């Protein structure tokens, strides 16, 4: 059996690449600019943050088992802070945040949040089964 963290990373990379290609495909079909709005940066940073947050949770899983939910929320807060530090200034250069700019950040953010939540939930259930 492979390491749960390695499985998570592989799933995340595949999911993010698939979502990115679908996102770019939708922009193409709608005849919009494909690589504007920092879409590549957004998918990349969100994937990196998802892997880091989940990696930290994996490392702390035994010592802080009962606090993993709070650590997960802290990781989500860090990812949201990255939006305000990195992306909001870039998006607001023209004075407002367009729906395409919002989508270029929010789609990978939401995707990362979903895969982390689902994976962590399954993982914690397995940890509970082994300790019961």
Walk me through the structure:
With 132 residues, this protein is mainly α. It has one domain (4-131). The protein has 4 helices and no strands. Helix 2 packs antiparallel against helix 3 and helix 3 packs antiparallel against helix 4. The protein is elongated and about 50 Å long. Keywords: Membrane, Transmembrane, Transmembrane helix.
Q: What is the alpha-carbon Rg in Å?
A: 17 Å
> What is the N-to-C succession of helices and strands?
HHHH
Strand content: under 5%
* Main sheet properties: none
Q: How many domain units?
A: 1
How do the strands and helices of this protein lay out in sequence?
Blueprint: H1 4-29, H2 39-59, H3 68-91, H4 99-131
């Amino acid at each position: 059996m492979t390491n749960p963290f390695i499985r998570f990373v592989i799933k995340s990379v595949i999911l993010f690449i698939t979502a990115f290609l679908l996102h770019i495909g939708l922009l193409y079909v709608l005849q919009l600019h494909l690589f504007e709005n920092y879409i590549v940066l957004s998918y990349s940073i969100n994937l990196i943050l998802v892997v880091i947050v989940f990696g930290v949770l994996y490392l702390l899983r035994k010592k802080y088992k009962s606090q993993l939910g709070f650590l997960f929320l802290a990781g989500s807060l860090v990812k949201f802070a990255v939006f305000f530090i990195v992306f909001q200034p870039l998006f607001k250069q023209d004075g407002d945040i367009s729906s395409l700019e919002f989508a270029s950040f929010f789609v990978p953010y939401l995707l990362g949040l979903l895969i982390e939540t689902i994976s962590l939930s399954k993982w914690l259930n397995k940890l509970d089964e082994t300790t019961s």
